[in-house]
Design a protein that fits this description.
TIM Barrel, 10 helices, about 300 residues, two-stranded parallel ribbon, eight-stranded mixed beta sheet, globular, alpha/beta
């Protein structure tokens, strides 16, 4: 068994040097620039930019993007996330229409909608998620819609409104192992995350559910295995596993870089547990290759 740290590392600790397999291919071609212009003209945000996703060049050049709704300021201060923390102001009720218009302009076959966490809103922003699903369905029938939602502070009535809007894939990330939640995901609760995933399946048994974890923050392989077991106990269908990459020195340091071989081992392990689709690799993120996970292809 791998040794467990007595306490989490300081955010100012340097961490190990990135290995050679952590490489991002820069590609700012015509598609990338067109999508960038579309986002700016519609006053929209993407998690690709705000969270410094390493796959932005590949995905944008392939004409895929993950919309970040409810603004670009998050009410939480997670130890891994590059999105700005603060006090959001207001609510843009016209945002769903602009998301739908941009989705249509991009000609997407599958769109992913995520958000900052808005603990300042009674429903956590659930109604804007619903609006995005409905507007996209009107603007572009046949487009797959995936939502990646925050935990809504356990507002299960708000959760039910999103489930009732019938997205094709319902994603809520677990992010880490329960022992590490207090510093990786302050204000979040592992049990709440598992309950959210369970409730979605209870309300919509045929809906594809999805969750993901980051590795490299000090968890053990035994802890990862237990999280995978917990996900399967709650009937999660799709799993993503990726390497945590430190956005800057203000965030938690990387404790370990997993090798491609270790990611493959986790993939084999997860498939043996019954996940219907698994993406596991150093640069895998929640929305990576999301279009290949739409229901008819899972």
């Amino acid at each position: 068994m791998e040794p467990l740290p007595m306490a989490h590392s300081s955010r100012t600790a340097p961490g190990p040097k990135p290995p050679p397999w952590i490489k991002v291919r820069l590609n700012t071609g015509a598609n990338y620039l067109q999508i960038q212009d579309l986002m700016r003209s519609q006053t929209l945000h993407t998690v690709c930019e705000e969270a410094l996703c390493p796959n932005i060049y590949e995905c944008w050049e392939a004409r895929t993007a993950t919309f970040l709704i409810l603004g670009d300021i998050c009410t939480r201060n997670c130890g891994f996330c590059a999105i700005t923390t603060g006090r959001p102001t207001g609510l843009d009720l016209l945002e769903p229409r602009r998301v739908a218009e941009t989705t249509k302009a991009m000609g997407l076959k599958h769109v992913v909608i995520t958000s900052v966490t808005r603990d300042d809103l009674p429903d956590g922003g659930a109604q804007i998620f619903v609006g995005c699903i409905e507007e996209i369905r009107k603007a572009l029938p046949g487009c797959g819609v995936e939502v990646l939602i925050p935990d809504l502070m356990g507002n299960w009535e708000a959760l039910s409104t999103i489930v009732a809007a019938a997205p094709d894939i319902f994603n809520h990330n677990t992010e880490s192992v329960p022992r590490m939640y207090s510093w990786v995901r302050p204000k979040a609760q592992y049990t709440r995350t598992m309950e959210l995933l369970r409730r979605v399946k209870q309300q919509a048994p045929s809906m594809i559910t999805k969750s993901g974890i980051m590795v490299g923050l000090g968890e053990s392989r035994e802890e990862i295995h237990q999280v995978l077991l917990d996900m399967r106990e709650n009937l999660v269908d799709v799993l993503t596993v990726g390497q945590y990459l430190r956005p800057d020195m203000k965030h938690l340091p990387v404790e370990k870089y997993y090798t491609p071989e270790e990611f493959h081992e986790i993939k084999v392990e997860a498939e043996a547990l019954g996940f219907r689709h698994v993406e596991s690799g150093p640069l895998v993120r929640s929305s990576y290759h999301a279009a290949s996970q739409i229901p008819e292809r899972v």
